Amino acid sequence: MHIASRQSFDPLQRRPPVAPRNLLIVDDSRAQRRILTALMMRRGYHVREAGSAEEALDLCRLHRFDIVISDWMMPGMSGPEFCAAFRALPRESYGYFILLTSRDDRAEAAHGLDLGADDFLSKPVDSQELYARVAAGERILRMERELTEKNRLIAATLSRLQTVHDALDRDLREARKLQQSLVRKRYQHFRSGQASLLLRPNGHVGGDLVGFFPIDATRLGMFAIDVSGHGVTSAIMTARLAGVLSGASPDQNIAMETGIGGRRRGLPPEEVAAALNDLMLNEIQTDQYLTLLYAVINLQTGDVDLVQAGHPRPAVQRSDGPVEFLGDGGLPVGLIADARFDRITTRLGPGDRLLIASDGITECTDPRGAQFDEPGVAACLARHSDLRGQMFLDALVQDLQDHSGAPDFTDDVSAALFEMHPRPS
Q: pLDDT digit string (tens) for 28-53?
């Protein structure tokens, strides 16, 4: 009972157009009206009569007539004038108008068409020609009503789609807030340096994730992840990965393990990549994969151990200006079982900095298709060598906008930056 009620009010339920069968005959000759009425009632039409255009207009205001057959010459308002007034009436559907005339004047016929008439019949009226002209009008009215019905269905569908879109848009805006909250800290100062993060999805939500967490009193873990694809599916994956690389829950952190005496210790970067690879293939079991750059930074010595798994090469800028890129690519995570990942080492001295950039940065294109690439990253580091932390990341975003010629990007943009404090003068 409930279902039937809902279906009866479904705006998308197709309603067959009503056949156009209501007809109005307008003629100051009662005999002529009687003849036409008899002919049309014989064919099953619902017919009304009016002896003048003024009377016909009053009837048209009260009833919906599908077809009007009107004499041309009548006392008072003529047939063409009545046609113009009929067209001016508010109607939900089209009305087909046929003028009866004893004239054979093309200029007069053109005048009638200009005023809104659809067809003409010569007097005296031939019954077969009358039936044919009215049948032609019916076909036009049926097509018009079918089109109107289809337009109604389209409008109803668009309305429902807009409602769904608005609800989805609200959900995605909230999802963006939740995804941004996955990066709990965008900046942290340490005795020997500082860490800064940039995360800018190209839509409501994205597949990039950056972060850092303390491993122990002297070491910091910093990561950048780019899940394949875009949108909701990738965002859900980043939320799952944020849970296994969280400093807030070290017991659940895949980069940590319990050692002798119950102490937590950090895994080497290449083992973290292997553990994530196993997680993707055996537990999450998705067709997606990800690129990863995970670095372990010794805050006392500046030693850096890192693994590059399909992510763009990280850049190291020395305190005196030169920029070098580390690694040679490596396999993405989640593609091949038992994949091997290699460790890369470097050392950051006072004033040096490590920039981990996503492919949304290196592959950002200008209007001609040229990518920002590593030379663009190196030039940005050199150009803004005096800027630190979030100010540098803001300058990096501005350089990307200048390069692309647009305020928005076609891919997620993310970066993780660690800077050693310069040696005191």
A: 999 999 999 999 999 999 999 999 99
